[in-house]
UniProtKB/TrEMBL annotation:
Heterotetramer of two PDHA1 and two PDHB subunits. The heterotetramer interacts with DLAT, and is part of the multimeric pyruvate dehydrogenase complex that contains multiple copies of pyruvate dehydrogenase (E1), dihydrolipoamide acetyltransferase (DLAT, E2) and lipoamide dehydrogenase (DLD, E3). These subunits are bound to an inner core composed of about 48 DLAT and 12 PDHX molecules. Interacts with DLAT. It is found in: Mitochondrion. Gene3D superfamilies: 3.40.50.920, 3.40.50.970. GO terms for biological process: glucose metabolic process; pyruvate decarboxylation to acetyl-CoA. It comes from the Eukaryota. It comes from Crocodylus porosus (Saltwater crocodile). This is Pyruvate dehydrogenase E1 component subunit beta. Its cofactor is thiamine diphosphate. Transmembrane segments: none annotated. Keywords: Carbohydrate metabolism, Glucose metabolism, Metal-binding, Mitochondrion, Oxidoreductase, Potassium, Pyruvate, Thiamine pyrophosphate, Transit peptide. Its main location: mitochondrion. Residues 34-209 form the Transketolase-like pyrimidine-binding domain. Its EC number is 1.2.4.1.
Length: 360
């Protein structure tokens, strides 16, 4: 055997495998930068290819490639039967999507903005969310309602509000709110495969933001489980809980505070309903302090729900100070840029809340 190897080696046909050479370590595959927009596009493409029951409908999703280019290239690839342009009638095409789901298909219904979903809220709540219960489990409604949610930039009061609390209030719906490209890709694929109606609240200002994605998170089999939060940054002094775009603000605030010796644990909720209270409780039991951050209004908001759950649960006894909420201002969104900025939680607001809670 040794002689045979020597012959092969002289002929250049035998080489020791790289990782066995002394001092050599195989480097992991390099992460690549993927925007939230491209992550959503990839997820749609893969799920349309995987399951012929999946189709996308909404305003300008087909020939125009989507108002935000989320569905770029899909109409050319899958055609009119799978990528369907609709009239400007949210109540109409949302009803079509819900009916198709009841009939066994798996529609993805895109709202150009969730502000326009108010036109179709009867279909989302009374038709989609309640049918499984009212049919005694005989009729499932596997539909995804998705599109940009929350504050935009310079579009006024009727286009800049967060509907996380609105839809999170309703039993029968699952509600997800991604921040990163990994969140967007993994949650959308999970939502499409789920047998329940899922509301996916994306953020318009995040579509063009790139995030590093590993080879694993780009796999066709990669899913982000609905109902499970993610600890984006571990810490010991205070817990910051957020969802969607403000998660990035929390991480920025945590980086600033770390220079002052304050270590924040940042939790990315990912899912509004069902809410992963266990992860929040475990964090509070370690840090003994809580600040919630969201872009929505304060009254009956996501932060208010988190505070109530903590008040009622075992983690309350671990708090060293009252929980603090950082939210959008309790007003309709102004159009003027400087007023708009003052209505949206900023990094400085989070830092102020943390210092107030820790009394520093």
């Amino acid at each position: 055997m040794a002689a045979a190897l020597r012959v092969l080696s002289r002929a250049g046909l035998h080489r020791s495998p790289g990782p066995l050479r002394r001092g050599f370590r195989a480097s992991p595959p390099a992460a690549v930068q993927v925007t939230v927009r491209d992550a959503l596009n990839q997820a749609l493409d893969e799920e349309l290819e995987r399951d012929e029951r999946v189709f996308l409908l909404g305003e300008e999703v087909a020939q125009y490639d989507g108002a935000y280019k989320i569905s770029r290239g899909l109409w050319k690839k899958y055609g009119d039967k799978r990528i369907i342009d609709t009239p400007i009638s949210e109540m109409g095409f949302t009803g079509i999507a819900v009916g198709a789901a009841m009939a066994g298909l798996r529609p993805i219904c895109e709202f150009m903005t969730f502000n326009f979903s108010m036109q179709a809220i009867d279909q989302v709540i009374n038709s989609a969310a309640k049918t499984y219960y009212m049919s005694s489990g005989m009729v499932s409604v596997p539909v995804v309602f998705r599109g940009p949610n929350g504050t935009s930039a310079g579009v006024g009061a009727q286009h800049s509000q967060c509907f996380a609390a609105w839809y999170g209030h309703c039993p029968g719906l699952k509600v997800v709110s991604p921040w990163s490209s990994e969140d967007a890709r993994g949650l959308l694929k999970s939502a499409i495969r789920d047998d329940n109606p899922v509301v996916m609240l994306e953020h318009e200002l995040m579509y063009g933001v790139p995030f590093e994605m590993s080879e694993e998170t780009q796999s066709k089999d990669f899913l982000v489980p609905i109902g499970k939060a993610k600890i984006e940054r571990p810490g010991t002094h205070i817990t910051l809980v957020s969802h969607s775009r403000p998660v990035g603000h929390c991480l920025e605030a945590a980086a600033v505070l770390a220079k002052e010796g304050v270590e924040c644990e940042v939790i990315n909720l990912r899912t509004i309903r069902p809410m992963d209270v266990e992860t929040i409780e475990a964090s509070i039991m370690k840090t003994n302090n809580l600040v919630t951050v969201e872009g929505g209004w304060p009254q009956f908001g996501v932060g208010a729900e988190i505070c109530a759950r903590i008040m009622e649960g075992p983690a309350f006894n671990y708090l060293d100070a009252p929980a603090v909420r950082v939210t959008g201002a309790d007003v309709p969104m102004p159009y003027a840029k400087i007023l708009e900025e003052n209505c949206i939680p900023q990094v400085k607001d989070i830092i102020f809340a943390v210092k107030k809670t820790l009394n520093i």
